[in-house]
């Protein structure tokens, strides 16, 4: 008997049932995919890092090196399992040409290495250690992905020619987030190439016990060994490897959450309508003392059928799509070991979706309890009054046309019904506007204030070369002789050892120079005004637990120097850990230097950039726009793409939900529509009424969504960006897109969907409804 | 000499498809005079409601012609019907078809406001007058779930009267009411008729039919009998009722 009732239920609402089921299927699909991705990502990453034997601790170092010192340190450290010093030959990207593609515009630091002897191996696409012959080169995978290189291509660097023999997996530098890329060549070729580049050393350690890592890190710093460059540890390698695919997983999970919410909306709507229809029967059953569980069971079973079908469909589809999404992981990390777990976790995820649906249905069915048997039998329906806004009376309405008035009135008297549509529209507006604001903010010129640099027009970067201070002063001289340059300043960055209150030692990079020439804005305090002061980036200040006015002790040339913290500023460059001071210290080695200059006429920046670039080949000269572009170009570009994709998804969801909502609304309102038509209202009148409802909800949704995106969104983005080192954050809003284009796009989408959704509203035949 | 407000000729209305096709109206011809009060009676499924909706042009017919006030309305477009029903006809249904989210006054003025929003004060005061006349003056701000069935039906009649219709169609307007309330509603119809409005009611209640001027009896889609109660014939309500009931029994046998 149940089967028959369930079949009838489903047959009566085919469209809504199908759509509900499809939403459940989509949610199940996404959750299953996320599960497969999580298992494969973690598994493949483990495998890659195990096969490659990724170092546990790596210190990059530019400049002279003392291998004997490192060797004796390694011998004395009981934690060290093995160590090695690798060379990374930095080659200017413009000198590398693969086939017909030059790497000149490439933002990566490209360099050449030979295969490691002990660990940190470069692997082929079968995760085997590559043996490379003379004349061959193995190219980082990212150049296969972006189609810069193919097997058999000729790679030319400084007149030397290599054949691309294959591609390599680099457990350290695979990710696009890692700024360096290693090309693998033979030892003989490396020897020949050496004179054309700058050698950077990778001082690598593997430990007996990874949990001893932080102790080992402190020991390395305390030993005062080579440290002119970043330090990277095993957990960081892992994070960098996981981040881009991890981000995809997070997005998929988020979208599936949104879809589950929409599915819930469909279920709530149809179920409430059904309860209304069956009100009398339920009431009678209650009155004659029957078990409500029986009728509850029927409802539950229809939805169980929908949930199970949807979940199974989603699970099946996940097998079709998983290959597509796994492509990237397979390419960059290879196969995973524990794939057997993946179907299990997928199934678990899908079960979770199904269970969530059933729990939701069960909760809605709680309403049965509140059904009054007396009302049900006497009136055939709930006598709960709709809330009438006495001030909103037709007999006092002089302003709006009757149909528009009826639309608005209906929304106001059935708020809970429209709440779901409103919620979806608010979320959609947020999803459209928030990434756009983010994009505008990070692509705006003002964003430089988050990078701990003042406002300038030209910037010279000198790094990875010898005699940096001398080269910097040459540029400074040229700039002071240039009549079009109004101001310039040299900033040199050096690494110092900092002695904390507990007596332990840490490294801190300090930018030295006259910071008053290009002042930055300080979140707290002010810039350094004497040689005894230091300003800290907000992450440094947070990690060191210092406030403005506290003191820090730095080791200058072996002797301690106490500096007072004068201010705290936002900086999201260099991992957000920077400091500024103005003392002079010729003894410490300069890691890099930056010369900033302001121009009389900023529009000359491009021309000046070209001129100076020719004059000083060792410096990277850039205008402020180009600098932002090179530093954040790829981030800005991915945010732009993400914003576009988010807008498309949000618009699609708005269209779908509006369409569905209008269809359900009209199905539910058949009787009042029939009454209206009998009273002389035309189909066009009815459509105007429904469009008015939609427009009314749309207006509220867009306004609230825009406000939320611009306020809550700002707080949220501020929190995220604070993690990267910004002390304070405010959106740069483009009023044209945020307040005009986005709302218009949403309005157009929602109106089109409403138009389609209500197109058949007038086809309801009054006779069938009026005749009893 | 009566002028006819409605003239229906050879009306056929078919329901169902293929083998289940059935002529619910099987060549009915009927004339209703200006200012006349006509009732239609008949057993369940005889086609009496269908006849009323066909004559009001609310429902399409399959063949035949219908003229309303001299115009052919057999095949009106939706908009033409809507315009006519708003301005020249009033409908009263068995269940009070009022909208839940409007109060009583708003329900009454709704159809009139559609075309004449500018005349809101005039329309509102007309509605208040009608409500007073029908004894529901103090209910104007009430929600429709806060009043009785009889009061709702009065509100429905007020709504039908708002456009000063040429004819009022009533589909079992007392069918859902107790006998005392039903008689109160019939008194209202009689009063409206006395002021010159044409009325056509569908009913299965002999007492209701007996209060009209002419009763049409429908069976299997055909008018099979007719009784007229001219004003001068002098029968009282009881006698008229007995006559109508007897005729009904004859038809049903």
Features:
heterodimer, A: 772 residues, alpha+beta, six-stranded mixed β-sheet, 21 helices, 18% strand, B: 253 residues, alpha/beta, Rossmann fold, four-stranded antiparallel β-sheet, globular
Question: How would you describe the overall organization of this protein?
Answer:
The complex is a heterodimer of chains A (772) and B (253). In chain A, strands 10-5-2-11-1-12 form a 6-stranded mixed beta sheet. In chain A, strands 3, 4, 6, 7, 8 and 9 form a 6-stranded mixed beta sheet that branches. In chain A, strands 14-15-20-17-19-18 form a 6-stranded mixed β-barrel. Chain A has 772 residues and is α+β, with helices and mostly antiparallel strands. In chain A, α7 packs parallel to α10 (341-364) and α12 packs across α19 (683-723). The two termini of chain A are 29 Å apart. The mean pLDDT of chain A is 83. Chain A contains 21 helices and 22 strands. Chain B has 253 residues and is an alpha/beta fold. Chain B has a domain at 4-95 and 169-252: P-loop containing nucleotide triphosphate hydrolases (Rossmann fold, 3-Layer(aba) Sandwich), CATH 3.40.50. In chain B, 36% of the residues lie in helices and 25% in strands. Chain B contains 8 helices and 10 strands. Chain B has a 6-stranded mixed beta sheet, sandwiched between helices. In chain B, strands 2-1-4-5 form a 4-stranded antiparallel beta sheet. In chain B, β7 (167-171), α6 and β8 form a beta-alpha-beta unit. Chain B is globular and about 50 Å long. The two termini of chain B are 36 Å apart. The relative contact order of chain B is 0.17. Classes of the chains: A alpha+beta (772), B alpha/beta (253). At the A-B interface, α12, α18, α19 and α21 of A face α2, α3 and α4 of B.
């Amino acid at each position: 008997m149940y089967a028959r009732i369930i079949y009838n239920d489903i047959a009566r609402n085919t469209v809504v049932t199908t759509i509900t089921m499809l939403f459940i299927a989509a949610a199940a699909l996404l959750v299953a995919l996320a599960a497969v991705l999580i298992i494969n990502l973690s598994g493949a990453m483990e495998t890659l890092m195990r096969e490659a034997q990724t170092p546990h601790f790596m210190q990059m170092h530019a400049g002279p090196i003392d291998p004997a010192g490192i060797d004796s340190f390694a011998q004395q450290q009981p934690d060290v399992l093995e160590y090695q010093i690798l060379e990374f030959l930095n080659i200017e990207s413009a000198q590398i040409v693969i086939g017909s593609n030059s790497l000149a515009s490439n933002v990566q630091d490209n360099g050449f290495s030979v295969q490691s002897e002990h660990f940190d191996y470069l692997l082929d696409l079968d995760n085997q250690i590559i043996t490379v012959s003379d004349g061959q080169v193995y190219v980082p995978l990212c150049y296969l992905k972006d189609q810069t290189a193919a097997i058999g291509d000729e790679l030319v660097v400084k007149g030397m020619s290599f054949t691309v023999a294959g591609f390599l997996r680099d457990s350290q530098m695979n990710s696009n987030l890692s700024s360096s890329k290693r090309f693998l060549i033979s030892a003989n070729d490396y020897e020949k190439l050496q004179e054309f580049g700058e050698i950077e050393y990778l001082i690598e350690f593997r430990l007996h016990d990874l949990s001893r890592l932080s102790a080992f890190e402190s020991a390395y710093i305390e030993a005062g060994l080579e440290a002119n460059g970043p330090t990277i540890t095993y957990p960081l390698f892992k994070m960098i490897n996981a981040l881009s695919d991890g981000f995809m997983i997070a997005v998929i999970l988020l979208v599936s959450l949104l879809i589950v919410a929409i599915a819930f909306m469909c279920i709530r709507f149809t179920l409430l309508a059904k309860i209304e229809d069956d009100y009398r029967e339920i009431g009678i059953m209650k009155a004659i003392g029957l078990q409500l569980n029986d009728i509850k069971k029927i409802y539950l079973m229809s939805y169980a059928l929908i949930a199970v079908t949807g979940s199974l469909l989603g699970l099946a589809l996940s097998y079709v799509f998983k290959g597509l999404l796994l492509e990237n992981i397979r390419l960059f990390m290879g196969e995973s070991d524990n794939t057997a777990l993946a179907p299990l976790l997928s199934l678990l995820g899908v079960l979770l979706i199904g269970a969530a649906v059933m729990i939701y249905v069960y909760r809605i069915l709680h309403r049965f309890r509140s059904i009054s048997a007396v009302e049900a039998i006497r009136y055939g329906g709930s006598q709960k009054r709709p809330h009438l806004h006495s001030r909103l009376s037709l007999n006092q309405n002089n302003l709006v046309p009757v149909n528009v008035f009826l639309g608005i009135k209906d929304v106001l008297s059935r708020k809970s019904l429209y709440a779901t549509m409103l919620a979806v529209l608010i979320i959609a507006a947020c999803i459209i506007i928030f990434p756009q604001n983010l994009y505008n903010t990070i692509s705006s010129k003002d964003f430089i204030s988050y990078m701990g640099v003042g406002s300038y027009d030209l910037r010279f970067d000198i790094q990875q070369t010898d005699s940096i201070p001398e080269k910097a002063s040459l540029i400074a001289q040229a700039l002071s002789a240039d009549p079009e340059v109004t101001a310039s300043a040299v900033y040199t960055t050096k690494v110092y050892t900092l002695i904390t209150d507990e007596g332990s030692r840490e490294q801190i990079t300090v930018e030295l120079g006259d910071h008053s020439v290009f002042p930055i804005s300080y979140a707290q305090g002010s810039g350094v005004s004497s040689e005894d002061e230091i300003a800290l980036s907000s992450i440094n200040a947070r990690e060191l637990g210092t406030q403005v006015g506290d003191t820090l002790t730095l080791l200058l040339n072996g002797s301690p120097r106490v500096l007072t913290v004068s201010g705290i500023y936002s900086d999201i460059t260099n991992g957000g850990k920077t400091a500024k001071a103005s003392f002079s210290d010729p003894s410490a080695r300069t890691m890099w230097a930056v010369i900033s200059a302001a121009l009389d006429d900023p529009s000359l920046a491009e021309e000046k950039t070209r001129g100076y670039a020719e004059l000083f080949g060792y410096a990277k000269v850039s205008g402020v726009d180009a600098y932002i572009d090179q530093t954040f170009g790829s981030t800005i570009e991915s945010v732009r793409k993400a914003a576009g994709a988010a807008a498309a998804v949000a618009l699609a969801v708005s269209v779908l939900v509006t369409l569905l909502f209008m269809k359900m609304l009209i199905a539910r309102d058949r009787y009042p529509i029939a009454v209206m038509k009998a009273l002389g209202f035309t189909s066009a009148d009815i459509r105007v009424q429904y469009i008015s409802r939609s427009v009314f909800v749309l207006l509220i949704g867009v306004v609230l969504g825009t406000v939320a995106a611009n306020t809550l969104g700002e707080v949220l983005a501020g929190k995220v960006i604070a993690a990267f080192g910004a002390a304070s954050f405010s959106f740069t809003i483009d009023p044209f897109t945020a307040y005009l284009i986005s709302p218009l796009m949403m309005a157009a989408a929602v109106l089109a969907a409403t138009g389609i959704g209500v197109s058949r509203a007038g086809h309801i035949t009054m006779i069938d409804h009026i005749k009893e | 000499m009566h002028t006819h407000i409605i003239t229906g000729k050879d009306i056929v209305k078919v329901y169902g498809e293929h083998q289940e096709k059935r002529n619910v109206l099987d060549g009915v011809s009927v004339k209703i005079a200006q200012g006349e009060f006509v009732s239609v009676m008949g057993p369940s499924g005889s086609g009496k409601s269908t006849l009323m909706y066909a004559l009001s042009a609310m429902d399409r017919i399959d063949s035949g012609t219908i003229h309303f006030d001299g115009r052919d309305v057999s095949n009106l477009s939706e908009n033409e019907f809507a315009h006519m029903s708003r301005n020249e006809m009033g409908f009263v249904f068995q269940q009070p078809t009022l909208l839940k989210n409007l109060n009583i006054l708003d329900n009454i003025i709704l159809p009139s406001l559609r075309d004449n929003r500018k005349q809101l004060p005039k329309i509102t005061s007309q509605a208040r007058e009608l409500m007073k006349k029908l004894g529901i003056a103090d209910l104007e701000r009430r929600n429709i779930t806060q009043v009785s069935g009889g009061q709702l039906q009065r509100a429905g009649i007020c709504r039908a009267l708002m456009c000063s219709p040429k004819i009022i169609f009533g589909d079992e307007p007392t069918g859902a009411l107790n006998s005392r309330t039903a008689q109160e509603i019939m008194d209202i119809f009689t009063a409206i008729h006395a002021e010159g409005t044409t009325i056509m009611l569908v009913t299965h209640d002999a007492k209701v039919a007996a209060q009209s001027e002419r009763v049409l009896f429908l069976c299997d889609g055909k008018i099979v009998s007719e009784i007229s109660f001219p004003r001068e014939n002098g029968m009282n309500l009881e006698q008229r009722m007995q006559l109508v009931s007897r005729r009904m029994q004859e038809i049903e046998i």
